[in-house]
């Protein structure tokens, strides 16, 4: 199997993933998964698609992660891994879709409007 690549996005985070056959190593920006995401919850989020298909120790994953915060990055990476696994084996798509890993979460920060302090907040109204 040659290298399979996929992209996942969430909020402002972008994850580019390169999957090849191996022993289950996940390298993010030249650091290990445990180094990059010290929180076990975020490690769990990243590994969800691999654990769903029970292929956690079958592939080596190299990741380029940019933008966003750690939660957005973890969820972008989860989407990218799920997309790459579907490229490898199309029959897995229904199992991953059922768990919700194939859906791009479209929610993002609303832009700030001119003449206002924030996106929805207004300056204090003064009658006189």
Overview of this protein structure:
34% of the residues lie in helices and 23% in strands. It has four helices and five strands. The mean pLDDT is 93. The protein is α+β, with helices and mostly antiparallel strands and 128 residues long. Helix 2 packs parallel to helix 3. 27% of the residues are buried. Strand 3 and strand 4 (31-32) form a beta hairpin. It starts with a strand and ends in a 29-residue tail after the last helix. Strands 1-2-5-3-4 form a five-stranded mixed sheet. It has one domain (4-99): Ribosomal Protein S5, domain 2. It has helices at 33-36, 40-53, 70-88, 93-99; strands at 4-10, 13-21, 26-28, 31-32, 59-66.
Q: What is the secondary structure topology, with strand pairs?
A:
Elements: E1 4-10, E2 13-21, E3 26-28, E4 31-32, H1 33-36, H2 40-53, E5 59-66, H3 70-88, H4 93-99
Parallel strand pairs: 3-5
Antiparallel strand pairs: 1-2, 2-5, 3-4
Helix pairs in contact: 2-3
């Amino acid at each position: 199997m040659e290298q399979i690549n996929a992209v996942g996005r969430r909020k402002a985070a972008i994850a580019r993933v390169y999957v090849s056959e191996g022993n289950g190593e996940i390298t993010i920006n030249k650091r290990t998964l445990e180094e990059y995401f010290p929180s076990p919850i975020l490690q769990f989020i990243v590994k969800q698609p691999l654990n769903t298909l029970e292929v956690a120790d079958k592939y080596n994953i190299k990741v380029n992660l940019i933008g966003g915060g750690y939660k957005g990055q973890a969820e972008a990476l989860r989407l990218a891994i799920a997309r790459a696994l579907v490229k490898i084996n199309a029959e897995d798509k229904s199992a991953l879709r059922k768990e919700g890993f194939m859906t791009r979460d479209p929610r993002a920060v609303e832009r700030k409007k001119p003449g206002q302090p924030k996106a929805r907040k207004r300056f204090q109204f003064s009658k006189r």
